[in-house]
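Hello again, I could really use a second opinion on something today. I've been staring at a protein lately and its backbone has me curious. Please have a think about how the structure follows from the sequence. I owe you a coffee for this, so here goes:
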Amino acid sequence: MAFDQIIGQENAVAILRNALRNGRLAHAYLFLGPEGVGKILTALTLAKAMNCQSPPEEGDSCEKCPSCLKVNSSNHTDVILLEPEGEVIKIEQIRDLQRRLRYRPLEGGRRVCIIDSADKMNAPASNALLKALEEPPDGTHLILATSRPHLLLPTILSRCQWVKFRPLTSSQVVQILQDGHSLGAEKAYFCASLAGGSAGQALALSNRVDFQRRLEWVDMFSDLARKTTVEIFDTCERIAKEDEEVNDLLELWKLWVRDLMVFKVQLGNPAPPPGEGLINHDLRARIAEEAPRYSFDQLDSIFRLISDVQKSIAFKANRQLALETLMLGMKKKSGGKEIYSGRR
């Protein structure tokens, strides 16, 4: 991928291309920004541009020469991508990297060492990396990528040139999912809405969650007012067993509440027409049917309940109890009567 195909990081790309064209590349970079916004993709693209044998213009890559093809296939001996083993980057990984740096680049170009999730280096690994940052071999450039720079040693931060990456817009995430991963428009839009500006998270969500599962969660939201207490307890017990499912469910419900509120606001205004700007825009007819059932105060209260439970779960509260409290509260806010039968 050439630089002009990187979406949403124009400022970071401009900094790197200018440095490459002017022969002023730093020996060490810190790429910092949210997860899944293109830091590693940009690092690999920079590595290609540094070693391209037939660049179409200065500071870019052709995507066709043997060097570019090797980087694309993760088979270039002078482009090293180091990732955590499990939860951490260990000192053995850094020592192995140091051994490789003793030798000149094998393919005659410039060596690029990319450390993904650099904040996961343990203390011995961090200290071992300092020597390479202080005395980098000729023709070698190190790129550290992180979303949590505050976890890196100050001495590491001070030895790197910082390049900041920003969250992507929803439309940019949609474009990446459609063009790069062949997702349909509706699914791409839905996943992008849940991803918080991260194409990586949106892609992971698209692989993890059946798009049609969203309809089940919307049904669950709509039916809460009619559910018995026992049915709610059973539902919470089932959902609480899956950590990711809980998170996705709560985010979907917040988006659904948001769409109901947007539709109600638009009903009172001449423009835009009701239904514009909905996240679940393919469910416009259902939103139009359900929105009048709620007042703004009810929707605001439900949204706050969901947000509070998300915070509780983030602080390791019991997921099942948190969900039970949430759903019973939502049932009450929706005007549902207390229906108890069977157990507890």
Summary: The radius of gyration is 25 Å. Residues 337-344 have pLDDT under 50 and may be disordered. The first strand starts at residue 28 and ends at 32. The CA atoms of residues 82 and 251 lie 33 Å apart.
